[in-house]
Amino acid sequence: MEICKYILGNESFEKLASMGLVANLTVYLQTRYNMDGIQLVNVYNIWSGSTNVTPLLGAFLSDAYLGRFRTLLFGSMSSFLGMVVLALTAGIPKLRPLDCPGVSKCQKPQDWQLGVLYSGLGLLAVGAGGVRPCNIAFGADQFDTRTEKGRAQLESFFNWWYFSFTVALVIALTAVVYVQTNVSWVIGYAIPAACLFSSIIIFLIGKHTYIITNSEGTVFVDIAKVIVAACKKHAVSLESSSGNPLYDPPLTESDQRVAKLAHTDMFKFFDKAALITDPSELDDKGSPKNSWRLCSVQQVEQLKLIVGLVPVWFTGIGCFITMDQMNTFGLMQAIQSNNEVHNFKIPPGWMGLISMICLSIWIFIYEQIYLPQARKRSKKNIRFTTRHRINTGIVMAILCMVVAAIVEKSRRDAALKQGTLVSPQSILLLLPQFALSGLNEAFAAVAIMEYYTNHLPETMRTLSGAIFFLSFSASSYLNTAIINLVHLVTSNNGKESPWLGGRDLNKVKLDYFYYLIASLAALNLLYFNLFSCRYLEKQVDKRSESRHEEMNEAA
C-alpha cells in the first residue's frame, strides 16, 4: 500500500476541492444567484449528472490514446481551471445578480452571467471525466491481482480509497464551508482551487513510484464490433449451427496482462458474433477478414460481462437517487432551520459532513475492528458479501427518506405556526437523515464500486470506473425528471399546496415527495432481491471459477 500514498493523497485533495464546491453549491446558487427550488435542483442535478457521464469519454481517451496517468493529469488541470472560474464569479459582483435577502422580487441572473457560471461548472465536469474513471483503475494497477496477497490488498484499497479522502473532507470542509458561509465566498472558493493545485503537485511528485501502463486500445471498439457482428447474423440459429465452431484464438504474447475469458452460456445472442458460418470468413492465417462480421470469443465475453452488470447498475441508480435528495432539498431544509446552537451558527453546508463522518466511521470499524477480530476467530478473511452490503444500503436509503419526511413536516409546521421563513426547529434534527444517507453510501456505493472493478478484467478497469459514475449520472438525470414531473402534476392542483417549487419550503409539501422517493427505494429493494442479485451471484461464481483456473495454470 506504500506505493499508493501519492494516489490517495491526490484523490484526497481533488475530492476536497470538488466537495468544497458541491457541499455548498446549493447554498451558493440560492443565495448568490437567487435561484428558486426547481431551477436550483435542475442546475445542480444536470451538472452532477454531467460530471458523472463525462467519465465515459475519459475512459475511452485513456484506453485508446492517453493512458491513465496522462488522463488523470489533464483532468486535474481542467478541474483547477473550473474552480478558478467559480472563484471569479464569487469575487466579481458583476458576474452574478444583485444579492437578495428575501424570497420574493429577487433579480434573476442574466444569460451571460449564467454562461460564465456554466463555463466553470463545465470545466469541472470535463475534469471529472479525466479523474473519476482513472483514479481507481490507476490505483488498482499498482497491485498484482494474480496473487492472493495482491487481491487482498486491492480489496482493502477500495475501502481506504473511500476512507482517506472522506477523512480529509471532514477535517478540511468544516473550515471551507464555514469560510464560504460566514467569512467570504471568494476565499471559500480560493481554498478548493489551491487544494486542486496541491493535488496536481502531489501526483507529479509520486510519478517515479508508479506502475504506468501504456494505452492498449479501447474496449469500446470491441463492444461495437460484437454488437454489429451479432446483428448481421441475427437470422442465424445457434441450434441449427451447432456444428459450426466459434472463433476462439489463443491470446498473443502482447496480451500478457489480459485474462483469457472462458465461453459462457449467458446472453447467447452475442455468440453469433463469434460463430464461423463460412470458412471464407477467415484468411490464410486464420484471422477474420472482416472484424465487424466475425469476432473472437474473448471479445464476445467482454461484452457479456458488461451486459451482466446492467441489472446491478439499475440497482445502483435507485440507491443514489436518495443521496441526491440530501445534496439539494436536504440543504434547503437546513437553510430554513434554526442553525444557532449555543450562540454558534452552524453553516447549512456542514450537514453533508455528517454523511461523510458516518461513512468513515463505518469503514474504520469494518476494516480495523470487525475484520481483524473475524480473522482471529475463523482464521479466514471473512467479509460481508456484496449482496448483503447492497441490501443494507437500500434499507438505509428507505429509512433516510422516511426520517427526512417526518422531520420536514415537523419543521414546516413549526415555521407556519410561528409565521417565519426560518423554522424555530433546530438544524440538529436533520442529523439522522444525513447520517442514514452516509450509511447508504458506505454500504451500497462501496460494494457496487468494488463489484464493478473486481468482476471485469484488468484491461477493462477504466471502463468499470466509468460505469460506476455513469450510474450517479443516470440517478441525477432521473431525479431531475421525477422532480419536474412531480412539480408539474402537483402544481396543477389548485386545492392543495404543490409538493415542490419556489424558494420557500414552507409553502410546499416536501415531505410527500420524500415518501414518494422512499416508495421507489422499497421497489428497488424488491427488484434487487427478486431479479438483479441473480446476475450478481452468477458473475461472482464465474469470476471465482476463472481465478481457480488461472491459479491452476500458473501452478
TrEMBL record:
CDD domains: MFS_NPF1_2 (cd17416)
Keywords noted in UniProt: Membrane, Transmembrane, Transmembrane helix
GO molecular function: transmembrane transporter activity
Classification via InterPro entries: MFS_trans_sf (IPR036259), POT_fam (IPR000109)
GO cellular component term of the entry, any: membrane
Pfam families assigned: PTR2
Top-level lineage group: Eukaryota
Main location: membrane
Keyword Acyltransferase: no
Membrane spanning residue stretches: 72-92, 112-138, 159-179, 185-205, 303-323, 350-369, 390-407, 427-453, 465-489, 512-533
Subcellular localization(s) per the UniProt record: Membrane
Entry keyword Metal-binding: no
UniProt topology in membrane: Multi-pass membrane protein
Family: Belongs to the major facilitator superfamily. Proton-dependent oligopeptide transporter (POT/PTR) (TC 2.A.17) family.
PANTHER family: OLIGOPEPTIDE TRANSPORTER-RELATED (PTHR11654)
UniProt-recorded name of the protein: Protein NRT1/ PTR FAMILY 2.8-like
Native organism taxonomy: Eukaryota, Viridiplantae, Streptophyta, Embryophyta, Tracheophyta
